[in-house]
Fold Transcriptional regulator.
Amino acid sequence: GLMFKPLHQSELDRTLAGLRDDRHWLTEAAVMQALDQDEFLLEYQPLTDVRSGHIRSLESLIRWRHPQRGRIGPDQFIPFVEANRVIGPVTQWVAETAIAQLGAWSEMGLELNIAINASARNLSDDSLAETILAACERAGIPPERVTLEITETAAMERFEDAVATLSRLRASGMHLAIDDFGTGYSSLAQLRRLPFSQIKIDRSLVTNCQQSHSALQIISTVVDLARSLGLRCIAEGVETKEDFDAVGNLGCDVAQGYLISRPLPADQLPPWLADWPVIPGPRRSVELLQN
Ligand code: C2E
Ligand code: MG
Ligand code: MG
Ligand code: MG
């Protein structure tokens, strides 16, 4: 049967704190320990070139295998991490892990590019550029094959430092994407002042867009904007063939979403790619996705 043992005051305090705040487990110390104990992992979601149907790039996405809480998605902990001092070490781990993985795939003959998520907060840390470039060097990956996706969650602090970090990365050949465009702080002002080479349209605009006149208009306008600034345009959250056709017809260059694939563990990527039915040719991928 059930046995109740008396609680110490400290345990009781923790329990009560836990009831008040169900994130009591999420502390800076817990994040540092998780890094130390290898509890984070990356999954990789393929991005497909809309016109050729080729998979040229993957986005790395972090997950936490928590010993008590099981698998935790980034929405459950990245906002906390970004708001605290641990975003530096986490982004460093992500960049090193993703780039090393790309190096391993390269040795298997898979020529892919990788996108890594970073927080605007990371950009005021001038060691980030160094870390990423060193990881590229170690893995034998040219920086041209790496894209840093920047998500704004708060007005960018120390804007001049961010400009310096991004300019340095861009000068090395790395690509920069503005993530979740159309939401929050991912704004036009940033597009003008920062050296982005890609726009990722937020999935809240893309999923089911064919059912919404205004969503289609907005995507079309963002595509025009991207064209006029010489940027690649990526649609995220492509869940159906209808979404895919719509963003393709509106002129998006790249599509990402569950229609193509969910994010995959590293070991599932090579067999998935081997099964991907690419037949190059204009708009061929649209037909391929019909099956
Ligand atoms: P994001 O960078 O915009 O990544 C895309 C998110 O959309 C991912 O969620 C992905 O799994 C999800 N997604 C992709 N296709 C579809 C689709 O067709 N339908 C739907 N409903 N969702 C789709 P995930 O992996 O839960 O990541 C959420 C967010 O957490 C990311 O949004 C990013 O802002 C953040 N994040 C993830 N990994 C990292 C990381 O390594 N570092 C940092 N700083 N942030 C990360
Ligand atoms: Mg992203
Ligand atoms: Mg994001
Ligand atoms: Mg996004």
In short: The pocket of C2E (ligand 1) is lined by residues 45, 61-62, 73-75, 78, 91, 94, 117-119, 149, 151, 179-180, 203, 207, 236-239, 256-258, 263 (CB under 6 Å). The chain has a mean pLDDT of 88. The two ends are 55 Å apart (CA to CA).
